[in-house]
Amino acid sequence: MKLNTMAAVMSFVSKIENDSASFYRNYAEKYPELESIFLSWNKENSKFEKNDLDSLGVNGSSCKGNECERGIAFSCSSHAAS
Fold this sequence. Notes:
Blueprint: H1 6-30, H2 35-55, E1 63-64, E2 67-68
Antiparallel strand pairs: 1-2
Helix pairs in contact: 1-2
């Protein structure tokens, strides 16, 4: 896979972070004895994604589907199921 633009890189990184967060949430449910560990990792992924989007001037209020008002493609957590 070629990532030719910063927008492509950010979209790719955001997808990996969303996928990881989903993995951690699923395993927190599957293994209740490790729930706190998995949920803490999930929280870390969410924090990094928020920081990534904030650094681009993107936030949940300005996103439209998978594109922000600046035209930067991304996959934010509020649209992960879209």
